[in-house]
Amino acid sequence: MSTELKLVVDRIKCDGRGLCAELLPELIRLDDWGYPILAPGPIPEHLRALAQRAVEDCPVLAIALRRAERKQ
Amino acid sequence: MRLLEGPEVGAGAESYADHVRRLGGVPDLGPGLIGTLQRSGLAGRGGAAFPTAVKWQAVAERSRGQAVVVVNGAEGEPRSQKDRLLMSARPHLVLDGAFIAARVLRARRVIVYIGERHQSARAAMLRAVAERPDPERGLVTFSAAPARYVAGAEAAAIHFLNEGVATPTTVPPYPFERGVGGAPTLVQNVETLAHVASLARPGGAASTLLLTLAGGVATAGVLEVEAGVTIGEAMRRAGGVTESPRAVLVGGYFGSWVEPERAWLLAIDHESLRRHGLGLGCGVIGLLPASRCPVCETAGIMRYLASESSAQCGPCFFGLRALADACTRISEGSSDGHDLQRLQRWAAEVAGRGSCRHPDGAVMFLASSLDVFAREFAHHTAHNLRRSA
């Protein structure tokens, strides 16, 4: 069984720099004030590498990958 | 047992001697109390309605004699009065619940956390603690909660007690994992603790709720009702409405507006309100008189909730402010005609994007306004357009 991953944002740390949405527009868009809105659900296999980069490149380290709880 | 039975509530705090004469001392408790709490279905009365037994179990498992009990009397909801009335009139019932928690959870400290503006409640609780015998008295310290809406939220209370800043923190860690001084911590509303004190006594039950009735009702203020009583019946017991209401706010500022005809029939208990997609929150039921403008009222409450954002999370700080501004533009007639769509979109986007539930509560309240007052919002918007044409 493969593990499903999802992105989580620490809303207190997040400064709205917007790098994540540039790297991963498939899953992250910005609201009218520049803060990320994440697409629901697990990260598709083919976007995992980009998601990993979004995590690593966030200037304030506000994004992380978490194991998603599988829906039964 | 009713929490407010016994001497006249207006007569001030019941003394320890009178309290013990009336109800007996804190009963001897076996380890079964958490089971009793579970069977009673007691849910937190601070607003979140979280099952009390679950919270106690989580702290008990981790305590090792180090746990901390925070008696939460912050009562930051502006319209709510029930917590301070309870502390002022029945301080020993609240303290019984706190000392029962300390015993069951093997806690080494009890912190009484009371809103800084609730001076008579604080005075009554200070006097009450001084009346208690040792070792109970020695466990207790006091702390004044800042007069902010979020100061009573668990994580904010712990942040304040640890670092003097009453803003929410990112969870986990949850209070039951790392709370005051890093110790497993129970943060429990004062009314919930009073119900625990009642439940722990032989034949005790937690079958009532404290409400604060506000707006156009003959006797506004705190009313204790049995769970399951309808809102209409509660209003009747408070002397009836003084002016025909346009809507009823169920659950205070984090609650929802409901049409009066529907509201009167709603049974007041957490379960049945939940089935209707509503919540009792901290027990505020407010009437909006038909003579008041619902759009202006909504704008005023949204401005308040925006100003009470802790300004830590962007979507809450910027989003609530933008929502409040758009409501204000519509109410004042200066909207460009797109504000209604903006409200719908922003409300959906802001939900679930804060570290605490403050933005969620605010947009839930707003969504109910846009629904119940759709006619008034549309009327204001049309009026705006005519003016700008």
Describe the structure.
The complex is a heterodimer of chains A (72) and B (389). Chain A has a two-stranded antiparallel sheet. Chain A starts with a strand and ends in a 5-residue tail after the last strand. Helices cover 21% and strands 22% of the residues of chain A. The longest helix of chain A is centred in the C-terminal third of the chain and has 10 residues, at 48-57. The mean pLDDT of chain A is 91. Chain A is an alpha+beta fold and 72 residues long. Chain A contains 2 helices and 4 strands; from the N terminus they run βαββαβ. The relative contact order of chain A is 0.34. Chain A has one domain (5-67): Alpha-Beta Plaits. In chain B, helix 2 (33-40) runs antiparallel to helix 3, helix 5 packs across helix 9 and helix 13 (294-307) runs antiparallel to helix 14 (314-332). Chain B folds into 3 domains: 9-199, Rossmann fold; 208-289, Ubiquitin-like (UB roll), CATH 3.10.20; 294-388, de novo design (two linked rop proteins) (Up-down Bundle). With 389 residues, chain B is an alpha/beta fold. Chain B is globular and about 70 Å long. In chain B, strand 5 and strand 6 (221-226) form a beta hairpin. Chain B contains 17 helices and 9 strands. Chain B starts with 15 loop residues before the first helix and ends with a helix. Chain B has helices spanning 16-23, 33-40, 52-62, 82-89, 91-104, 119-131, 136-139, 154-163, 190-199, 231-237, 260-264, 270-275, 294-307, 314-332, 339-350, 358-372, 374-388, and strands at 67-73, 107-115, 140-145, 185-189, 208-214, 221-226, 245-250, 256-258, 284-289. The model of chain B has no long low-confidence stretch (mean pLDDT 94). In chain B, the strands form 2 sheets. Chain B has a 5-stranded mixed sheet with strand order 6-5-9-7-8, with helices on both faces. Chain B has a 4-stranded parallel sheet with strand order 3-2-1-4, with helices on both faces. The interface between A and B is medium-sized, with 14 and 16 residues.
